[in-house]
């Protein structure tokens, strides 16, 4: 048999107040169980580190507009094609450089978007207080 | 049996060198592992530079000095310093090849070139004015290069699954892959024929048409571009 609490304050809220009529909550508040240690880890996982950047969309749309205008004659869109390909090449090159840097765990001063490796390196140097 | 044993020995050597690398550079452990894919040679061995033009370039720029004491991998038997060697043509012969019968593939491509030469020479001899004659290209290799260049797509479509539906997403293409696709299309165009027509003959016709920016392959390229244009709304679905 469940007894009403001695203090007749209820365990639940109605309009942000605890009613004092001593009623039990219909649903017990979820108990906190201390399974995990209550402090932050010294590392982050790299699971969600996929950069979702889509490059060269602007150039692509310009290229499509040109191709459509000239009935898909590539000779007329020489400039657009070149700029599009250059953009892609540039993007791949920077991506590769960044990946290499991240792999080595190099810390670039003033870098805003850190990779998980770089963050881990920083966290190793300055661990969380426990 | 002996082959298997040799392979095993090679593998163990691989592991040894890998272990030493790991010991040497603990920080770069992962990169060292990725670098060492299965290979006969350690990563210190560089690929051979066998084309005279490239060698000349290296000598002129003075980069030979860096390669002076670098160990070099053995050259393939298809690597030659002959003036007739053409890397793109070698690639094309490899694409035409089936089940390792390279001599047959090479013969087929040679016959193709012969057919191209015959067709162009006939046109050349039938031409009346000097102007017309000057416009006729009689070098099959030049025609081949022109045809492959004209068949190269700028974009490609790749299937990307979003919300349970596969979208055909237009993405940029690398130079190497566009060359491959162009050559693959020419090979396929050469194969689509009546039973009585031979592959070299059909391929020669296709290459000649491609060099003039006509024909099946160029049409295929245009179709691909049209499809890309139609699917341009999905372009932001790609991840890279």
Secondary-structure arrangement, i.e. CATH architecture of the largest domain in chain B: Orthogonal Bundle
Shape of chain B: globular
| SS-based class of chain A | mainly alpha
Low-pLDDT stretches of chain A are none
Count of helix runs of chain B:
11
Radius of gyration of chain A: 29 Å
Indicate the mean pLDDT of chain B.
84
DSSP strand tally of chain A: 0
Oligomeric state of the chains?
heterodimer
Overall structural class of chain B, as computed from helix and strand content, comes to: mainly alpha
The string of secondary-structure elements of chain A, in order, is HHH
Termini separation of chain B: 46 Å
Largest sheet of chain A: none
Mean pLDDT of chain A: 80
Helix content of chain B: 55-70%
Count of spatially separate domains of chain B: 2
Order of helices and strands of chain B: HHHHHHHHEEHHH
C-alpha end-to-end distance of chain A:
42 Å
Keywords (chain B): Ribonucleoprotein, Ribosomal protein
Domain Small ribosomal subunit protein uS7 (chain B): 79-232
Pfam family, one (chain B): Ribosomal_S7
InterPro entries (chain B): Ribosomal_uS7 (IPR000235), Ribosomal_uS7_dom (IPR023798)
